[in-house]
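Weekly puzzle thread! Below is a chain. First person to post its structure in token form gets bragging rights.
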Amino acid sequence: MHHTLKLYNRNRPLVLKGYIFFAKWTRIPVIGGLVRRVANLWGGNMTSAYALTPDEAYAVIDASNGLALGPCTCRETFKNCSHPVNAELLIGINHEFAHDHGKEFREVSKQEAKDIVKDCHQRGLLHTIIKCRQDYYALCNCCRCCCVPLRLIKDYGIGKALTRDKTIVEQFKQSFERYETTEKTRMTAASGG
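Winning reply:
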């Protein structure tokens, strides 16, 4: 897991408030265009959200080797609506990452995760997979009024904050396979085998 993800994880509400704070700078006439370009570079290279269909969300769940349910950071931070807060799924759990979340998250089965996605879809929530650098780490089911990536694109024109990529599930599977191979190699080397 990349150190950037650990830093984000420990400061999620502060980071999301920071994204919105700096996004407001896109409205300043002289520097707004530059801020938008920098934000789009950041979204393209550091932190990205990809919109998913329910079937794609189910495929991500099926490909994950572990899932944990906890509060949607956007909804918990901004509280713009009354949709259920427990709608964020950590995917492909790395125990160190799950430990950083403390008691906020609990492990769930693939079926329970799919039921959560189905319920959220029926409520009209948006399904996204979140990526920090090379790590896909969460499948979020967020509302349109709190979702930071959606607000960044809709309200501030930062188009790389939330994108649609029809190959994202395959990219997730390949990333996950690379991670598992790397971990096996690291564990074998550590055990002297």
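Puzzle host: Confirmed. Bonus trivia for everyone else. Residues 3-188 form one domain.
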